[in-house]
Amino acid sequence: MAGKGVFKDMLDGEVYKYYADGEWKRSSSGGTVNILNPSTRKPQYKVQACTQEEVNKVFDSAKAAQKLWAKTPLWKRAEALHRAAAILKENKVAIAEALVKEVAKPQKDAVTEVVRSGDLISYTAEEGIRILAEGKFLVSDSFPGNDRNKLCMSSKIPLGVVLAIPPFNYPVNLAVSKIGPALIAGNALVLKPPTQGAVSCLHMVHCFHLAGFPKGLISAVTGKGSEIGDFLTMHPMVNCISFTGGDTGIAIARKAGMIPLQMELGGKDACIVLEDADLDLAASNIVKGGYSYSGQRCTAVKVVLAFESIADMLVAKVNAKVAKLTVGPPEEDSDITPVVSESSANFIEGLVKDAKEKGAKFHQEWKRDGNLIWPVLIDHVRPDMRIAWEEPFGPVLPVIRIKTVEEGIHHCNANNFGLQGCVFTKDINKAIMIADAMETGTVQINSAPARGPDHFPFQGIRDSGVGSQGITNSINMMTKTKSTVINLPGPSYQMG
Ligand code: G3H
Q: Residue 411 phi/psi, 5° resolution?
């Protein structure tokens, strides 16, 4: 159970403590932040409102711990990550419970998120062993004007202290996708959990605590964005920021110093369906891609661009599947659960109303109860409607009918976002040519967009972010190259 058994030290009465110097602590502020349950819209959990002074201390400890951690043998760092992965998986039920209560993730998906996170950590440990063991060896005489008297040995060293800010929709998985690579590469890690999702995140951190990482190497500070948000992201001791979330990321990137950034800020993933597509396959992927976790995935299908000639047939198939989606509480493992907050539900409603006023065709009745929104497919959407371009992050999916491939590609590329996209066709040559023309970080052929498997590169362009994620890319991104050059007194011996 969340907050019980092995997790009991995390609680102070009914308030979750923050994690620093290898201990769970109460903030000197005496203040707390409420986390509302999206289903009941009532307070579910409370976390500490940390102060700037506490943030400063966390960075001091992180810096000191990192120096020693960087010198800890790589195989020992990997072993510690494997321990954390195992403990996380052992405690999947308790962590999933927190995910259900604070972000309304359907029960089964919540368990899957925790298991996937354990697998991600283990894979990261293995990948780190492989890629950090290798360096480069260069000889000077390949560059014009040089003799063979300089030998360069380069390897990857850690950046220092990584600040990780995961989003509410995957507070565990998108936290460990940052923590794992940072730690295996020899960095220290400061985590700022999202407010909704903080308690799941803190439980995950406790698994790292139980795995026996050095004191101060990992910390998790909770609190009000207004008090510690900018303070964290602009802190002079941050050497790298890995952020996943909304357009706050753009502001963070503007204010951050001269440090590597890994930012993933959302998507408006287009799904182009050609005339020759397998429409059953396309329809299943549109429903899974568009409505799973109530559309609250950056990789969700967010606009369907269907050829006129097959649009009616496709829409009918999608509608038949939408009708079977169950709507209700996450505890009952419903397909559609309440969206994360009232403001999010209001935003979605605004997009839907705009489309309705401008003449879009609704295949389902618009229905909302608190944060719970029934799934809708909005057809005959035109480019003058907000929903054609904006990211609802909810179970509402627009369909735009297109006459040419170029029209589909244009809509995909004219968007501010460029995370993923997908194309459905049986003509593989056409699929590859379209994928090549779609300006997004990834294009899926004959499947819905998705980040996983977690070792695949994952990146967005334009407002979808900077830097590439995926296990290997994240490890590389959280390191820098260090070279040692051996300068010989002259070229090698000239023999006989
Ligand atoms: O919400 C953003 C996530 O990176 C999406 O991950 O494709 O595994 O759902 P996913």
A: -60, -40
Gap from CA of 301 to ligand 1 centroid (Å): 11
Amino acid of residue 275? E
**What are 151-174's pLDDT values in tens digits?**
999 999 999 999 999 999 999 999
Instruction: Count how many residues are written for the chain.
Output: 496
Of 457, 483, 482, 479, nearest in space to 185 by CA: 479
Q: In whole angstroms, give the CA distance from residue 196 to residue 190.
A: 18
134 catalytic residue (yes or no): no
Residue found by looking up tokens 């969340």 in the block: 2
pLDDT at position 404, please? 98
For residue 245, what pLDDT is reported? Answer: 96
Identify the bridge partners of residue 20 per DSSP, sorted by sequence position: 23
The answer to whether 291 touches 324, Cβ cutoff 8 Å, is no
* Choice among 54, 97, 113, 264 that is catalytic: 264
Q: Is the pLDDT of residue 494 over 90?
A: no
Residue whose tokens read 């207004």: 226
> Which of 109, 170, 291, 420 has most ligand 1 atoms within 8 Å of CB, for mutation?
170
> Residue 55 half-sphere exposure, CB side, CA atoms within 13 Å?
24
297 CB near ligand 1 (under 6 Å) = yes
Our answer on whether the CB atom of 451 is closer than 6 Å to any ligand 1 atom is yes
- Pocket of ligand 1 contains residue 116 by CB under 6 Å: no
Atom of ligand 1 at shortest range from CA of 174 = 4
Could you read off the pLDDT of 2-28 as tens digits, one per residue? 889 999 999 999 999 999 999 999 999
Does 453 contact ligand 1 (Cβ within 6 A)?
no
d(CA 293, CA 56): 36
Average pLDDT over residues 273-300: 98
Tell me the DSSP string of 369-398.
ETTEE--EEEES--TTSGGGTS---SSEEE
Evaluate if residue 491 carries a pLDDT over 90. no
